[in-house]
Write a structure and sequence with these properties.
Blueprint lengths: L1 E2 L8 E2 L4 H33 L1 H38 L43 E4 L2 E3 L2 E3 L2 E4 L5 E3 L4 E9 L3 E9 L2 E11 L6 E2 L4 E5 L9 E8 L2 E3 L9
Antiparallel strand pairs: 1-2, 3-6, 4-5, 6-13, 7-12, 8-9, 8-11, 9-10, 10-12, 10-13, 13-14
Length: 246
């Protein structure tokens, strides 16, 4: 290799052997490989650093979800307790809880409604011998209405008269199934539906808390329960305005 500077007669000569050229070629190839590796590594690291932001956001969301786990566990425990309670209501052979009921004495008749005037005739007593579980209350709206209370209880639970009165209707209906309607006087009536068996006859007088039927799932019903309604002067009222669940 001869180098001749511009405007000068001095020359510089460099001699490169074939062996040295091969070494230089190998060094050039190695340098190129290292350069390609460095460029690739830089691209990989750049892509990984770009994903750090979304990963940090994901970690923050996971930590927030983790902080909610105790609350979700508590809610799950509450739901399981409610489910167990509902399931126990429909357990085969479940015995009803003891409650205040009245049965007429042997050989005795029922007192007339006039003897049961006042507080005894007001339908303000819980219509079952056990608390049960209210699955649906009374409501009215654009999407539909429900005229009374649905109380889930085991089949053949005692159904009681909410107040003293006279049997106004008793029979079987496609919607209500076996039912009893009582007239309590002073404009009050009460209805007890979906019974497996009714234990009173038309025109009979009953006392407050007297057993008038056994609960069931007759008529348009998907599970054993009591449908309970109260009317005042022919207008449906919310039974929970008068009765209190034990």
């Amino acid at each position: 290799v001869i180098l001749v500077p511009d405007g000068s007669e001095d020359r510089r000569t460099y001699q490169v052997s074939y062996r040295r050229l091969r070494v230089l070629r190998v060094l050039a190839i190695v340098s190129a490989v290292i350069l390609v590796f460095l460029i690739g590594s830089w691209g990989f690291l750049a892509s990984r650093s770009a994903s750090v932001g979304p990963l940090e956001a994901t970690v923050a969301e996971l930590r927030a979800e983790q902080s909610r786990i105790p609350l979700l566990v508590q809610q799950l425990d509450e739901l399981e307790a409610q489910y167990s309670h509902i399931r126990s209501l429909f357990a085969p052979g479940a015995a009803p809880r003891p409650g205040e009921i009245w049965l007429p004495p042997p050989g005795g008749g029922r007192p007339g409604l006039r003897e049961e005037a006042g507080e005894e005739a007001l339908p303000n007593s819980w219509p079952l011998t056990e608390p049960g579980f209210i699955t649906q209350g009374r409501f009215e709206g654009e999407s539909g209405s429900h005229p009374g209370l649905d109380i889930a209880v085991p089949t053949d639970s005692y159904v009681r008269a909410a107040g003293a009165g006279v049997v106004l209707e008793v029979g079987d209906d496609p919607t209500y199934g076996r039912f009893v309607r009582l007239d309590h006087g002073n404009g009050y009536q009460s209805l007890y539906a979906h019974a497996t068996r009714t234990m009173v006859t038309l025109g009979e007088t009953v006392r407050k808390n007297e057993v008038i039927a056994l609960s069931g799932s007759t008529g348009q019903s998907t599970a054993p329960h009591l449908h309970f309604e109260i009317l005042r002067d022919g207008v449906l009222v919310d039974p929970l305005e008068l009765v209190t669940q034990p």
